[in-house]
Specification:
Chain lengths: ~350, ~120
């Protein structure tokens, strides 16, 4: 074995010290020193599926957009229909590229008629900022990068709402999915979004960076299990959620994924690229035993027709699952071969997601 | 960190017992996290010290296992096929990987004290 350790100049979230105190194993992730696991990926994964866990996602970026043209500007640079987004609601959305692919996949929250808040992927903060500020020049809209001002903690799992309710000053249970509102949690001012990236119910807690560690400690005391990037990835994979850099990129056609509903019929940047039919399709695969990883070739009738984009053993299901991008004309087969270290292993195509919460 | 004194250790975290048994160290299994699959070599294969002979996969990643000695594979731990988590639970016991008829040990093998100093 090799490469157990990597070091370098990495950014730290406001919760870095809390992670070290909790015994986290830290790894480089998109330029950040992040916890990959605390007790172990399987245990953390199970905690989120069966009870409630929490993730530090403070490395993600937060931008605010205000002004009379805020809606028109965002409507142009995204594919989903923002005109239908009411204040107090959150919406999953895409930033289409000027030359194809996606700049990023994002969440947008409407604060008021002319004020929006958005969360972008950590590794794309600088790229998104450059892209959005360039596009905003034609609009009467002001962009602010608030990424350093916020700590962000995702509380996820079937018991998340009940656990948080005990310490909140407003009714959380009644809030609908994709609600976005201000509240006090453990007496600290927060913004809460009933959203997440695990396939479970939960809330994402936006807290001032300087109060993030106090919030984390309060959540620990309330019984939430800290979970790292390892569990976050296996949870999102089981739920069939695409991840930027794997299922999305500047060069992958956005409609290759199953999330075609994110594109609405409207004028937006890069529409001419999205209007072209994708040459690849994202499919779900299961295997009997061997985990398959990103980049492994996918074969059909002796020909390479695609590659694995994400793969792991599914802790909930107990067998390996993977997502793969394959040529459209090869996307309807029932079985494929995946090449693992020179040997071909049979993989069966299944509908995404692999795991779905019963009442979602 | 558990580092038995009767074993020799490679810098790449495999251990070698006098009888030719090979596994990965407690430190290595802890770093890998939950082991979910182990790919073992074929019995009868001749291997050289430092050669990739097995793969241990955790939830997150696949890690090559290098032979700490030259020789012939004379046994593999078939039980890991249904219980790969033994690599985590008993890295020096039931989580062993394969057994070699050793012809020559690798040049970089360390005793327990040196391995602990290198990974402490």
């Amino acid at each position: 074995m090799t490469n157990l350790d990597e070091t370098g100049a990495l950014r730290r979230t406001p919760l870095h010290a809390a992670h070290l105190r909790a015994g986290a194993r830290m790894v480089p992730f998109g330029g950040w020193d992040m916890p990959v696991q605390y007790a172990g990926v399987k245990a953390e994964h199970a905690a989120v599926r069966e009870s409630a866990g929490m993730f530090d996602v403070s490395h993600m970026g937060e931008f605010r957009v205000t002004g009379p043209d805020a809606e028109a500007f965002l409507q142009y640079v995204t594919t989903n229909d923002l005109s239908k987004l009411r204040p107090g609601r959150a919406q999953y959305n895409w930033l289409p590229g000027e030359t194809g692919g996606l700049v990023d996949d994002i969440y947008i929250y409407r604060v008021s008629a002319d004020e929006f808040f958005m969360v972008v992927n950590a590794s794309n903060i600088a790229k998104d900022w450059a892209h959005l500020t360039r596009q905003a020049a034609k609009y009467s809209a002001v962009l602010t990068d608030e990424s350093d001002q916020w700590g962000l903690i995702a509380v996820q799992g079937p018991k998340a709402a009940d656990l948080l309710q005990l310490h909140a000053d407003t009714d959380l249970i009644a809030r609908k999915k994709n609600s976005f509102f201000s509240a006090h949690l453990f007496g600290l001012p927060v913004w809460l979004a009933r959203t997440g990236y695990t396939g479970e119910d939960g809330f994402e807690v936006f807290v001032a960076a300087e109060q993030a560690e106090e919030m984390w400690n309060q959540l620990l005391s309330a019984g939430l299990i800290p979970a790292g990037l390892g569990a976050r990835d296996t949870l999102r994979l089981e739920a069939g959620f695409p991840l930027y850099g794997h299922e999305f990129s500047d060069s992958i056609h956005p409609l290759s994924s199953t999330y075609t509903w994110v594109v609405k019929d409207k004028q937006h940047l890069g529409r001419e690229h999205i209007d072209l039919a994708p040459s690849q399709k994202l499919i779900g695969l299961t295997l009997d035993k061997v985990p398959v990883r990103e980049g492994y070739p996918v074969q059909l009738d002796g020909q390479v027709v695609g590659h694995i984009t994400s793969g792991s053993l599914s802790p909930t299901l107990g067998y390996p699952v993977a997502m793969a991008l394959v040529n459209v004309q090869s996307a309807d087969a029932e079985a494929y071969g995946v090449e693992v270290r020179g040997k071909l292993h049979e993989a069966r195509r299944v509908a995404l997601p692999f795991y779905k919460k019963a009442d979602v | 960190m558990n580092i038995p004194s009767d074993l020799k250790y490679a810098a790449s975290h495999e251990w070698l017992k006098d009888d030719g048994t090979v596994g990965i160290s407690d430190f290595a299994q802890d770093q890998l996290g939950d082991v979910v699959y182990v790919e073992l070599p074929e019995v009868g294969r001749e291997v050289k010290a430092g050669e990739t002979v097995a793969v241990v996969e955790s939830v997150k990643t696949a890690s090559d296992i290098y032979s700490p000695a030259s020789g012939t594979i004379v046994a593999v731990n078939e039980a890991l096929g249904s219980a790969p988590e033994q690599v985590n639970g008993e890295p020096y016991g039931d989580g062993w990987l394969f057994k070699l008829d050793v012809t020559e040990e690798g040049g970089d093998l360390m005793d327990a004290a040196a391995y602990e100093a290198a990974n402490g």
